[in-house]
UniProtKB/TrEMBL annotation:
One of its GO terms (biological process) is proton transmembrane transport. InterPro entries: Mit_KHE1. This is Uncharacterized protein. It comes from Morus notabilis. The lineage of its organism: Eukaryota, Viridiplantae, Streptophyta, Embryophyta, Tracheophyta. GO terms for cellular component: mitochondrial inner membrane. PANTHER family: K+-H+ EXCHANGE-LIKE PROTEIN, TRANSMEMBRANE PROTEIN.
Length: 272
């Protein structure tokens, strides 16, 4: 699986890091997340080299699947109901999540290659260093917050004695899962950019087919990561620069062109 990462400055020293995942033709089908406790227990294995890690990931994926289904149920609740109010509260809490955390969570654990698109005027070594820095920083921060969230889970279970839904528990449970996924994504990104730092490739996206032979192109696209400067991204940035970074119109154009989430990009712009 290949992750396409788009990197560009949005305001001063603030850079945007956003990704879309593209499956490669050779990727095998991923295992289906168990939908019931019976199916979960049937897939738990103690014969793997690392049974605790594999079983923990299976359990986390199972809980995350249940949480996603529950969230979809809250989203469909009629306006004005208690479930609808909980959904609105959840949206406000999600709006406070840092964009870097959303970026790391969007990187799946089975990604094997990274294609980095960045403005043509930037130095590729600078882009590589910024990616390595944010990935390393993410592993430290989200490991710390993950352990902190896990330590709060036993405390929030005490609220189950109340007749109301245990919102603090589910809040901490969601943050635990969120930091776990962000930790996995940051570690995977750091491993890819570190392994490919000596053998990374920089190509011009518009001339890639005319510059490389078919054999070289296959080798290039199968490498750990590819640096791809974009003249189109550079032109969009140059047209949208104002006195306070990129304008909202320019950010909207970039998001439409490269299929990015405008809300996440705006968070990068507004982060101090």
């Amino acid at each position: 699986m290949r992750a396409k990462v788009v990197v560009f400055p949005v305001r001063g020293r603030n850079w945007c890091f956003s990704t879309t995942v593209q499956p490669l033709p050779s990727d095998s089908a991923t295992s289906v997340t168990p939908s019931s406790l019976k199916e979960l227990f049937s897939k738990i294995s103690f014969s793997n080299p690392k049974p605790f890690v594999s079983n923990a990931e299976l359990l986390i994926d199972f809980v995350a699947n249940k949480m996603n289904k529950g969230w979809m149920g809250l989203e469909k609740a009629p306006r004005g109901t208690f479930k609808n109010k909980i959904h609105g509260l959840g949206l406000r809490l999600l709006a406070r999540v840092k964009p870097s955390e959303m970026f790391f969570k969007s990187i799946p654990k089975d990604v094997t290659a990274v294609e980095v698109t960045y403005p043509a005027s930037l130095n590729p070594r600078l882009v590589r260093r910024r990616l390595q820095h944010i990935a390393l920083r993410g592993t430290v921060i989200h490991r710390r917050y993950f352990y902190g969230s896990v330590s709060l889970l036993p405390l929030t279970t005490a609220f189950t004695v109340l007749p109301l839904p245990n919102i603090p528990f589910f809040r901490v449970l969601f943050r635990t899962y969120s930091h776990w996924r962000a930790l996995q994504g940051s570690e995977q990104l750091l491993q890819l950019v570190s392994d490919g730092s000596q053998n990374s490739n920089s190509v011009e996206g518009d001339d890639i087919k005319s510059t490389f032979s078919e054999h070289d192109l296959k080798r290039l696209l199968s490498s750990a990561w590819v640096l791809q400067p974009s003249k189109e991204l550079e032109e969009l940035i140059q047209r949208g620069i104002d006195g306070d970074g990129l304008s909202k119109t320019a950010i909207s154009d970039i998001c439409n062109t490269f299929d990015l989430n405008p809300n996440d990009v705006l968070k990068y712009r507004n982060t101090m």
